[in-house]
Structures are given as structure tokens and as C-alpha cells.
Design brief:
single chain, 358 residues, Beta-Lactamase, seven-stranded mixed sheet, six-stranded antiparallel sheet, 36% helix
Length: 358
């Protein structure tokens, strides 16, 4: 047992989402969205480096020493997987570990809207799950892949950095590929995937032009492609995909997206006030013909209005989802106001409106 495993057990026992280890500081966990210090001595750089290197593959240590950053996955069988990031900082080394439960929560267990089960059964198209770091994108995607795995008879390829949730093949054949270990890059793996008879491709992060281009091409040529982006709502997500491309290609990508983009899920996590834990508010855009026309004509500013009138298709705005959580008394008015889009809608629920509210 590695020395660092004691911290992972503490994380697991308390239900913490992240572990922060940084030379010159005490260990810290993120519990229900807030950082809490562990009663432990301040970490010495050499001691921490030895602790981290004990669990890192040699190739990752070499990469870290050459570049100052590295990502990889670490697993404690029977407990959980952890997404690891090592980095250099002023006082020495640092590391952050995100806990990835060994059990994949189902769509029902997460309380996801029923429309997302239908999305998981689509035959082709691009599905994007977006939100800030730590908003639960991977958990939502894992539930959708789990539903497809149980209810389809297809080939699923996941491309991640590192592999997070591990799906055992059930109705589907599932192959997991990790960037840096099984393939050189997201784009290289995507190119390869098109020759590997996939039905569903999960791209862990669409982080550059080439990866986004290949994902869009795969979606347009008969594959169901799931991907993630760091954007705050559906309209911004569409804009982000288009703006990655050079100006002379943007008209073409608008045309491609207008027919291949099928769904955007933009989500945020909230601390619950009725019990320990967190819950998600989801904005859902279903891309029917009317939405496709807006994308093609460059009128993405009208997408929020289209979502508001699209409830019969399973659409919902982020603010409507937040309002539902507030009505259930699951979240505080302050956090609802902080993370909503239309501040005017939620300021009335605050005991003390902010001075800068106009």
C-alpha cells in the first residue's frame, strides 16, 4: 500500500471530491464544494515528491520533470479511481486528485431528465455536455454512456486523458483509450476511431481545433459523438465551437453544426442546504430544425428564446432548472443568484440584495 493511499481512504470515507497536496501547505480536501484542511503536518517538498512518485508510472514522472505538468489515472481496487494532476509551483511540487467513483451512477440515480435517455439512443450526431470545471460533466456523460451500454448493441470507444469512469461491456462492446498511454493525442485517436467500426465515440475533452473538427466530421458521417467543453450555457457552446475555426471556415462549420448538433447540456453544481451533498441544474438544448436554422444563419443569440418555447421537446433553461431547485428548498437563494443567468429573476429571493445590483 502506497503511503498516499491513506489520504485517498480519508477522501473516500468523507465523500470528498478532490484532494490537494502542495509543498508548504497541509493537505486539503474539497468536501461538498468547499475546501477543508486535514489535521496533518505541513508537507515538505521532498517528502511530498517521494509520496507522489510512488504511485506515478515512470513515463509520467519523466514527462512531469520535463514539462512541469502531467495528468494520469490512479486506481485503488475496490475503492475508487482518481484523476491525478501533478504541477510545479513556487514552493515545490503540487498535486490535485479528483475522485471518480468505481460505480457509475445511472441516469435515474442522478435524477437526469428523461430526454437524456433518448439522446443516448440517437444513431448519429454531436452531443455536448458543458460547464465549468468540477460541474459534474463526466458524471452526466458516464450515466448516458451507461444507459447506451445497457440498451444498445453497438461499439463504444472512449478517448480520455486520463480514463475516468470505467464501463464494463454489457449490451455494447466498450473500449477505453487513454491519451498518452494508448494513443498520442485526442485527434490521433479520433482519426483512428473512424477505422475501428465505432457507433458511439466519447471524446473526453474537445480542447483544440483539430479535435473539434474531427468530432464534427465523425458526427456528420453517421456516428454518435459525445464531447465536453468548458462553456456556461448552450448558446455560448455553439459560439465556442464555431469561433475555434478560422473565419473563412465558419460558414461551413455553421452548416455542418446545423444538421449534426443534436443536443447541448450545460450544467452547474450547487451545494444542497437540505442535506449533505450537491445537486446539478441542467440547461438542455435539443437541436431541431428551428435551432438548426438559427445556427446556420448566425443567430445564436436567439437560442435562449428557442429553449424557453421548446419544453415539449424536453428543453429547459438553466434558470428554470435553478428555480426548480430553489422551489424544492434544495439550494440557497444566494447560490441560485450567484450562478443564474438572469439576476433580476432571483434577486427578489435574497434577504440582502447586493449593493451593485441595478
Amino acid at each position: 500500500m502506497a503511503k498516499i493511499d491513506a489520504f485517498f481512504k480519508l477522501m473516500f470515507d468523507h465523500g470528498a471530491s478532490d484532494l490537494h497536496l502542495s509543498a508548504g501547505n497541509q493537505p486539503i480536501i474539497r468536501l461538498h464544494g468547499e475546501l477543508e484542511r486535514i489535521k496533518y503536518k505541513v508537507l515538505d517538498n521532498d517528502e511530498l515528491k517521494a509520496m507522489l512518485y510512488e504511485i506515478a508510472p515512470e513515463a509520467k514522472i519523466k514527462q512531469f520533470e520535463e514539462t512541469g505538468d502531467v495528468d494520469f489515472g490512479y486506481e485503488i481496487p475496490g475503492m475508487a479511481r482518481f484523476r491525478a494532476n501533478f504541477f510545479q509551483q513556487k514552493w515545490g511540487v503540487g498535486a490535485v486528485f479528483r475522485q471518480i467513483p468505481s460505480k457509475v451512477l445511472t441516469a435515474d440515480e442522478l435524477g437526469l431528465p428523461p430526454i437524456l435517455k433518448k439522446v443516448a439512443m440517437l444513431k448519429k450526431g454531436l452531443v455536448l455536455v458543458t460547464g465549468p470545471t468540477g460541474s459534474g460533466k463526466s458524471t452526466t456523460l458516464a450515466a448516458m454512456i451507461d444507459y447506451a451500454n445497457k440498451n444498445r448493441r453497438d461499439h463504444i470507444i472512449t478517448i480520455e486523458d486520463p480514463i475516468e469512469f470505467v464501463h464494463q461491456s454489457q449490451g455494447c462492446l466498450v473500449n477505453h483509450r487513454e491519451v498518452g498511454q494508448h494513443t498520442r493525442s485526442f485527434s490521433a485517436a479520433l482519426r483512428g476511431a473512424l477505422r475501428e467500426d465505432p457507433d458511439i465515440i466519447l471524446v473526453g475533452e474537445m480542447r483544440d481545433l483539430e479535435t473539434i473538427r474531427l468530432a464534427c466530421e465523425a458526427a456528420a458521417t453517421g456516428h454518435l459523438v459525445f464531447g465536453t467543453l468548458h462553456t456556461i450555457n448552450a448558446a455560448k457552446t455553439v459560439d465556442r465551437v464555431i469561433e475555434v475555426f478560422p473565419a473563412e471556415e465558419q460558414a461551413q462549420i455553421r452548416n455542418t453544426l446545423s444538421t449534426s448538433l443534436r443536443c447541448v447540456v450545460a450544467q452547474n453544481l450547487f451545494k444542497r442546504i437540505d442535506k449533505k451533498g450537491r445537486c446539478a441544474a441542467l440547461e438542455i438544448l435539443i437541436c431541431h430544425a428551428g435551432v438548426g436554422n438559427l445556427i446556420r444563419e448566425g443567430k445564436t443569440v436567439q437560442i435562449p428564446s428557442m429553449i424557453q418555447v421548446g419544453k415539449k421537446y424536453g428543453m429547459q433553461t438553466l434558470d428554470d432548472a435553478i428555480a426548480a431547485l430553489l422551489e424544492k428548498k434544495w439550494i440557497s437563494p444566494e447560490e441560485a443568484y450567484d450562478k443564474c443567468i438572469d439576476k433580476n429573476r432571483f434577486v427578489q429571493f435574497l434577504k440582502t440584495p447586493p449593493d451593485d445590483f441595478a
